[in-house]
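Blinded run. Sample ID left blank on purpose so nobody reads anything into the name before looking at the predicted structure. Input follows.
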Amino acid sequence: MAADHGMVGKVGRVTGAIEPGKLGEVMIQVRGGSEAFHAYGAEGEGALPTGSRIVVIEYFPPRTVVVTRM
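Blinded prediction complete.
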């Protein structure tokens, strides 16, 4: 999946609330559509409620990202 190498910096939206230290879900525009990824908030980020706009700061293949609010 060559397109995945550019995940850091992509913008998306929280679709499953992200609580500190707990896994949530985000939708990110990739490969011409939106795809769901498992997501953790960045250290010290706090809760990210559903609907929050986020940016990817780390990517762990195949489907996990670390995000921060925009």
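Unblinding after everyone has recorded impressions. Residues 2-69 form a domain with the OB fold (Dihydrolipoamide Acetyltransferase, E2P) fold (CATH 2.40.50.140).
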